[in-house]
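Person: I keep going back and forth on a fold encoding question. Show me how you would write down a chain together with its backbone fold. Please set it down just below, with no commentary around it:
Helper:
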Amino acid sequence: MMNTKQTNIINLIAKIGWIAFSALFFFAGSAVCSGATDEGERLFEKKCSTCHSIKKPKSKAMTEAEWHSTILRMKSNGADLSRQDIEQIVAHLAKNYPRK
């Protein structure tokens, strides 16, 4: 049977473990988000440039909802975009070309 001191040490180790795991999860999530943004930029340049120059969209500043509406309009005009493509492109544009 463990005494109080041993129990406290085990509880402390468990807390430290959870803190370390949480930090690892947070930083791994940040890396994934960063990768998604890079993919959004790649998709933006690849998909959007098939119909028009990407200079015009880069000169705009919009909210996320406005970018989403714009990208949906492009899809209705014939842009070959999946739902995932749209999400990643919108995230890229909203982050890099936000309405100030």
Summary: The chain has a mean pLDDT of 82. Residues 4-96 form one domain. Residues 15 and 21 are 10 Å apart (CA to CA).
